[in-house]
Each structure stands twice: as C-alpha cells, then as structure tokens.
Amino acid sequence: MSQPSPTHPAHRAPDTAAAEADPPFGPDLSIGAGTATPYEDYVQASVLTHLQHLQSDDPGEMVFLVTTQVMELWFTVIVHEWTTAADALRRDDLPVAMDALRRSTWELEALNAAWKPLARLTPAQFNAYRAALGEGSGFQSAMYRRLEFLLGEKSASMLVPHRGSPQDHAALEKALHEPSLYDEVLRLLARRGHPIPETVLRRDPTQRYESDPAVEEVWAAVLAGAQDSELARLGELLTDVAELVWRWRNDHLVATRRAMGAKMGTGGSAGVAWLEKRARKNVFPELWTARSHV
Ligand code: HEM
C-alpha cells in the first residue's frame, strides 16, 4: 500500500539511519505529499465519503443513507465470499470453501450490528425524510438480490426492476442461471457418496430451491454421524449462515414495523406484511428440518 520514502529515517540506507539519534516513532508525513496518498489510492476514501447526497434537510437522514451504504458494502463482501465458496466446492476444495463461509459469518455479524442506529427509528423521525426517498426501496438493491440468488432464492421476476441498468441486469441474469451455493453443496454431497436425487442435481437453477425429503435424510445422516467430520462441520457452518441471514431479515422487519407500522412500502409492497412473508422463508431448509430426525 505504501512506497518507501527516501526522506524518512526508516527508509534510508542503514548507515545513515544509524546516525540518527532517535529511531522514527511517528508516521512519515512526507509520504503522499504533493500527490494522492497511497492510502487514498487504495481506499478511495475521498470518493466513498462524498457519496452522501442527502435528499432532505433532516439531520437524521445522514445515518439512514450511510447505514444503507454500509450494508451495500457488506452485501458485496458476502457475495464475494459465497461466490468463492461455491467455486471452491465445485473444485472439491473444502478448506477454501469453509474459510470463505466462516469469514462470511463474521461479516454477517457485522452487517447485522449495523442495524443499531436505525433499530429504534420512530414513525415521526422516519417521516421527516421518508417522502424524499420517493419510490426508492432496498427491494431494488441488486447486490442483495445476488445474495438471495446465491442462497437459492431465485426468481426471474426480480430482474425486472434492473432492466434500466445493463451492468446490474447482466450480473443478475448470470447469477440467475448459475447453480447457487446450496446447489454446489448438494453436488458435493452426491460426489461424496450421499444419495442426493438426480431430480435435485439436475434441477433448473433459475428456479427457487424447494425442500426435498431425500436431501433432508442425507443431512440427518450427516448430522447424526461423526461431529468432527468435514461434512458435519460444513453443515453447521451453513446453518450459522442461514441463522444470521434470518436475523438480518428479522431485524429489518422489526425496524420497519417500529418506523412505519403497517403503511405501504416506498417500493410499492404491502410493507411489513410482505416482509413477514419473506422472513418466514427458511435458508437451506433441510438443514433445519433434518434436526427433528437426528
Ligand atoms: C428503518 C428503515 C427501513 C424501513 C422502514 C424499510 C422498509 C422496507 C420495506 C417496507 C420493504 C418492502 C419493499 C417495499 O415496498 O419498499 C423493504 C425491503 C427491503 N429493504 Fe428496507 N427498510 C429500511 C431499511 C433498510 C436498510 C438500511 C436496508 C439496507 C440495504 C434495507 C434493505 C432492504 C432490502 C434488501 C429489501 C428487500 C427484501 C427482500 O427482497 O426480501 N432496508 N424495506
């Protein structure tokens, strides 16, 4: 990230540095002088911190916008981890897949903690800038949609809001047709000798994943077996992911219920009633139902 600076004692030839009475303690202030700092080159902080275009005069809007932007960044990181995990599973590289999934659980924790500043918005506080949002809604988040697609929650109709943004639309179209993270997990289970039905292995990846009794039996056998086996640990890691996604959905639901009761959403849905239905969906369903049979 930073290039050595010839003027800083730490970066001079050893004999010159030795001649200095005191070794350097503070940072080298000459780094980046006269040009963008190496930090700026890497982080692009000046871009990131100038993307807050507020739509109202309400002082509470800033944290609403920034929380949303922070969550978009976390969605991006998590999509990256799950794509890494899916690719690794396809190559039978379980250690790389498990590392990416484990990192994603910590990132999901951080994502969920980001609800804190919005969790207790009152309707009067939210109303102060709600109208300024127009028809904007998190429902239109392309990165969140990719995250849901990776979980197996596919839906071609969810591409419709993005038809005006070719880049987002193309990324979603690709993700729609690719096997989800869970599809890759089930293919791996089959390659390891577990009886996953052909109908599941050859399913149309553009369709939402539906729970299957034979897959439930496979997970029940894995979860009942050696607790330290690779597949049992993979099953628990996926359950952690599923639980944390469920928590995000529920924290969103409760924050929405507090901030706007049963009003319609800015994205045109029934609001809380629609979000309740979404939150009821089980991520990796058989990993939950199999537990009754262990
Ligand atoms: C307390 C503030 C918030 C309220 C009142 C709220 C309200 C809603 C409502 C009513 C919907 C349903 C769709 C609609 O008709 O608009 C929705 C969907 C959504 N919101 Fe929020 N939201 C809030 C904060 C956030 C934040 C900070 C994010 C972060 C990106 C977010 C992301 C989403 C996503 C991804 C959906 C779609 C969920 C799905 O497809 O299942 N929301 N929101």
Could you describe the 3D structure shown?
Its cofactor is heme. Belongs to the tryptophan 2,3-dioxygenase family. Homotetramer. This protein has 14 helices and no strands. By secondary structure, the protein is an all-alpha fold. The protein has two domains: 40 residues, no CATH class; 232 residues, Methane Monooxygenase Hydroxylase, Chain G, domain 1 (Up-down Bundle). The N terminus is likely disordered. Bound molecules: protoporphyrin IX containing FE. The site of protoporphyrin IX containing FE has 25 residues, from helix 4, helix 12 and helix 13.
Give the CATH level 1 class of the largest domain. Answer: Mainly Alpha
**Global Rg:** 24 Å
CATH topology of the largest domain: Methane Monooxygenase Hydroxylase, Chain G, domain 1
Mean pLDDT comes to 94
Helix vs. strand class: mainly alpha
Give a quick summary of the entry.
With 294 residues, this protein is an all-alpha fold. 57% of the residues lie in helices and 0% in strands.
Furnish the topology, listing elements before pairings.
Elements: H1 14-19, H2 38-43, H3 45-48, H4 61-90, H5 94-113, H6 123-130, H7 142-151, H8 166-177, H9 181-191, H10 198-201, H11 213-224, H12 230-260, H13 272-279, H14 285-289
Helix pairs in contact: 4-5, 4-7, 4-9, 5-12, 7-8, 11-12, 12-13
The structure holds protoporphyrin IX containing FE.
